Structure formats: structure tokens, C-alpha cells
């Protein structure tokens, strides 16, 4: 089985994220970059499927030069090969362009499964997997808390507002996974060493047959008009409980007309 | 006036229109003439409420294929309506389904999409609250039919009575929609409380609640306020409370008038799901807990003493 996993480098979860004054894009230089934590579950699921059913796992990432670290991280967890789409013209791409780039990199490679995280912690859109499925014209099995493979069919449990739906499709399929699905492994020392020798193909937009004018900030189909830091919330009233903590909250809620 | 398509959600069991959908109809009126889009059965019973909130038309797509396949049938129906009506905008809820519908519709119709808007003005500029609420962004779609996903509890639903007429639309779905099939729906028990993402008040418990029995304290407080119950991932992972009540990055995003966090430290992933709450009250033993940074009112103390006392007080004051 040929499996692709799409991973994104994002600013460290705990870093303060800011937009750049000059072009309203996310500052990806200052904070440390990490493998989007929800994508770790995608890598883990890909590895488990490959271990159980045989197969090869290719990591795919679009991002600036330093996103190569993120590709290496996934390789050190055990993925076999990487594709890093890196091109200055991609700066400021919206989800529409990102999905076009990923779809172009994934198309015609014969992947049976293309696995995503359910959300990037910076963009938080949860749309890329669905958009890629739309572009590739393949089945969409997203928000999976469980994935199982039987022959050429893949079945997932999709987390819903009310419980879960069991959804099945013939491969090829796009899958996205939620964090309940597994426990991502840590790269071993051996894995880290082995990752250094694994093949990573670096591609530019032209290599994908895409027009440079169709990606990047100028081509985006939505634009930021302005942004501002939310004025810091005035510090709240914090009291210690002297046996009347509950009553004090009740008084506060009465003042605020909740009671 | 150009139509604005609004994807209306309704409770599968009771058929009642979700409050969030009335909020979307209210926003849609700023951009044009709201038209509801309804998937599944039960639209006839909803005509009154849809009309009351300003929808002059409801497009009804009720067929077996719509139910049997996830997400894509909704995109098929909406894209056909976009082609036919050239609406001023399409507004869908910021649910998992809603965002995926919006994303695919954007690709298919050559339109820009803005997700998780908390407001839209008459010129189509959307407000988003990003990076855990630290930054407010205004943005606009610059290509095609603007598509927005809007968070629940972002605006108050306002009636604008009109007469709503139903129009049946084709439910023939594309080949790609049929590539995935729903074989079973598992519905977790719902209970009598308001729905988490719609509730005006949410009372949440975390690791500090200590076990599933501890959640009865949280539930009692919630019931005294007519609130929904939420939980941190620590509590849902431990099996103390069902997963569908998890609030946070990988759980539900809530934006209630009042959020009461009990025994929750306020990790960044938890905050991601509740940071836009209008008011936050926190109870935690640890004065250093980050949740207090967000709290309008906080009590440093043991929740097993503070919360029952609060519940008693509320019941006393309510009577
Ligand atoms: C990929 C990923 C996704 C995640 N998604 C989510 C998510 O969606 N939602 C989420 O919530 N978390 C999420 N997390 C987990 C998050 O990082 C935290 O681990 C989690 O929120 C902690 O839950 P907690 O606050 O209940 O527990 P803790 O951090 O352990 O805090 C418990 C708090 O209870 C207090 N306490 C203990 N006993 C009492 C008492 N008797 N009275 C009063 N206070 C008491 C303690 O002082 C402490 O502050 C995610 C993590 C990852 C890696
Ligand atoms: N630049 C990127 N490169 C590779 N994968 C990505 C990229 N952006 C998003 N993804 C994938 O799409 C998922 C959802 O991202 P998003 O729609 O941005 O929330 C992520 O969890 C990743 O698996």
C-alpha cells in the first residue's frame, strides 16, 4: 500500500503568534517551528497501517526552507521518504492555493491513502483535507477516531456532534484523523540517525506544473483588511475561598444578571 | 435583492431548527435576502420559524443519497444553487461538516472562503478572532461568491417576519459524493441539557473533578443555571465524561455568555475552545493556574466546597 501523510510546520504551540505588519501574514520566522501536533497522529496512523498491511509512507509538506526539519521529524518517526514543496512564491498562500499545491504533488503518484491531521494549530481551518479530496476527486473520510482497512476498502469512525458515523469507501481515499486515534511514538535514536539518509525530494511550484501566479498572497481569494491585538482584558477579580467562595460567585453572577 | 444562502441545521431527532441557524439568518439579512437551504426531512414544520427570522425561501434537498453520503451531497446542492441564483454570499455554520462544505464549495465555485467568522458587516467584511483570541482580524473575500463559516453565539438572533415558501431542489448527487458511504450512525445519549455549542452558559469540569462521580457536582451547578456541561480533555480521556463534551482545540468551540471552569488549569488547547466566551468564572485550588488570566471572576479554592455552595446560593436566589 502507498500512503502519503501531509504534515505542516507551525509555530510552537506555546509561542505567541503574531501577524507581520508589512503583509498581515503569520510570522513564521521568530517562534520555533514544530510539526503540527495534530499531524503527529496522522504520521502515527500511517505508520501503524503500513506496519499492519505492508506499505510505504511518504511525508508531504509545503512550507519555507525550515519546514525541512518537520519532514525530517516525520522521517525519524519512521516514514520512508519525503516531499518538500518549497518556493518563495508560495508565501501568503491561502487554503485554496495550499490545497492546489498539495493536490498537484499527490496526484498521479498512486497513493492509496492520503492521511492528514484534522487541523493545523495556526490556521485552524480544518478545510485542507476536504479541499484536497475535492480536487483529487477521491473519497473523503475525515475526522476519524478509528481507521480500519479490509482489502481495498477503508472504513472510519467519523466524530460527529452527536456521536460518530461509520463511513466506508474504496481506496484511494483522503483520511484525516483526530487526536483520540492513537498515541504518537517518539523518534528513537536509531530513527533519528536513519532519517538523515532517507530521500527527500524538494519541489518548486513549476515542478508541479502550476502557474506561479496562481499561488501566494497576490493570488489569494480572500484578503486581510486590517488586524489588531485584542486590547488586554482587564484583570479579573480573583479571591481566595474563606468559606464563602461559592456565595461570592453567586453575588457576582447576580450583579452580572445571570441569576 | 440578491439572495444569501444559509445552510440551516436542525436537530435530527426533534427536527427543530438550531438556534445557531437563526443567528446565521440574522447575519445574512445584512448582505441580502436570506434563503435557507435544508437537508433531509422535516422542513414543512420549520417554515414558520424560518419565515419569522427572515427567510423568504427554503430550498429543500431531501433524498436518500443526501443521507447516505457524507458532506459532498451538500456541496453538490449548494454549488447548483450558487450557479442558478448567483447569491451575494453563502453562510454555513462553523461545525466540522460546515467547514468542510465551505472548503469544497470554495474550490468548486472559484470562491474565497473565510472560516470561523464571529461577525460580518453589510459590506461583507468578516471579523475573526485568531491565535487564541489574542488578535482580531478583519478580512474580505476577493474572488467569486463569498463563503463564510460563522461560529455559534456570535450574534443574537433577531426576528424579521416574512412568509417562507419551500422549493424542492434536485437531490441527484455527483459520482464523487458516492465514493464514501455512511453505513451506520451512532448517537450518544444526549440528555436534557442544552447543546454545548449553543448554550448561553457552559459549566465545565477538568482533572480537578477527580472522577466520574465528581461530575455530579458540575451537573448540579449546570442544572441550576440551565447550562450545558463541558469537560477538559484530561477529564474526557480519563473516561470521566463522554468525549463529545470536550471543549478545546480538538473538542468543541464554545462562545457562551458565561463559562464556568472548575478544576481546569487552562492549557492553551483548552483555551482555544472557550477563549471567546463573553465572561469567564474559574474555580481552582492553584492560584497560579493560567485559567485565572482569563477569568473575570475567580475563586482560589476547592471546587468540592465552592461549587456546591454556589449551586445552593443560585437555587436560593432563584426562589
Ligand atoms: C493535540 C492536543 C490536543 C488537545 N486538545 C485539547 C482539547 O480539545 N481540550 C482540552 O481541554 N485539552 C486539550 N489538550 C490537553 C491540554 O493540553 C491539557 O492537558 C488539558 O486541557 C488539561 O486538562 P485539565 O485542565 O482538566 O487538567 P490539569 O491541567 O491537570 O489541571 C487540573 C486543575 O485542577 C485543579 N484542581 C485539582 N483539584 C482541585 C479541586 N479539588 N478543586 C479545585 N481545583 C482543583 C488543579 O490545580 C489544576 O489546575 C490537548 C492536548 C494536545 C497535545
Ligand atoms: N502547508 C501544508 N503542508 C502539508 N500539509 C498541510 C499544510 N497545511 C495544512 N496541511 C494539512 O492539512 C491539515 C488541516 O489543516 P488546516 O485546514 O490548515 O487546519 C493539517 O493537519 C495538515 O495535515
Strand order of the largest sheet of chain A: 9-8-7-10-6-1-4-5-11
- Uncertain parts of chain B: none
Structural class of chain B: alpha/beta
SS strand fraction of chain A: 25-35%
Features:
heterodimer, A: 259 residues, alpha/beta, Rossmann fold, nine-stranded mixed beta sheet, two-stranded antiparallel ribbon, globular, B: 319 residues, five-stranded parallel beta sheet, binds flavin-adenine dinucleotide, binds adenosine monophosphate
SSE arrangement:
The complex is a heterodimer of chains A (259) and B (319).
Chain A (H helix, E strand, L loop, with lengths): L1 E5 L2 E3 L21 E3 L1 H17 L2 E7 L4 H11 L3 E5 L9 H12 L6 E5 L10 H9 L2 E12 L2 E7 L3 E8 L2 E5 L11 H7 L4 E4 L18 E8 L7 E4 L4 H11 L4
Parallel strand pairs in A: 1-4, 1-6, 4-5, 5-11, 6-10, 7-10
Antiparallel strand pairs in A: 2-3, 7-8, 8-9
Helix pairs in contact in A: 2-5, 3-4
Chain B lengths: L2 E6 L10 H10 L4 E7 L3 H10 L4 E5 L2 H5 L3 H14 L3 E5 L2 H14 L3 E8 L5 E5 L4 E7 L5 E4 L14 E4 L11 E8 L13 E5 L9 H11 L2 E4 L1 H5 L20 E5 L5 H4 L8 E5 L6 H4 L2 E4 L2 H16 L1
Bound molecules: flavin-adenine dinucleotide (FAD) and adenosine monophosphate.
Adenosine monophosphate binds next to α1, β4, α3, β6 and α4 of chain A.
Concise synopsis of the structure shown:
The complex is a heterodimer of chains A (259) and B (319). With 259 residues, chain A is of the alpha/beta class.
What features would you describe in this structure?
The complex is a heterodimer of chains A (259) and B (319). Chain A is α/β, with parallel strands linked by helices. Chain A has helices at 37-53, 67-77, 95-106, 128-136, 189-195, 245-255; strands at 2-6, 9-11, 33-35, 56-62, 81-85, 113-117, 139-150, 153-159, 163-170, 173-177, 200-203, 222-229, 237-240. In chain A, the strands form 2 sheets. In chain A, strands 9-8-7-10-6-1-4-5-11 form a 9-stranded mixed beta sheet, sandwiched between helices. In chain A, strands 2-3 form a two-stranded antiparallel sheet. In chain A, helix 2 (67-77) packs across helix 5 and helix 3 (95-106) packs across helix 4 (128-136). The longest helix of chain A is centred in the first third of the chain and has 17 residues, at 37-53. The relative contact order of chain A is 0.17. Chain B has 319 residues and is an alpha/beta fold. Chain B is 29% helix and 26% strand. In chain B, the strands form 2 sheets. A 9-stranded mixed beta sheet of chain B has the order 7-6-5-8-4-1-2-3-9, sandwiched between helices. In chain B, strands 12-11-13-14-15 form a 5-stranded parallel beta sheet. In chain B, helix 1 (19-28) links the parallel strand 1 (3-8) and strand 2. In chain B, helix 4 (72-85) packs across helix 5 and helix 6 packs parallel to helix 10 (303-318). The interface between A and B is large, with 84 and 91 residues. Adenosine monophosphate binds next to helix 1, strand 4, helix 3, strand 6 and helix 4 of chain A.
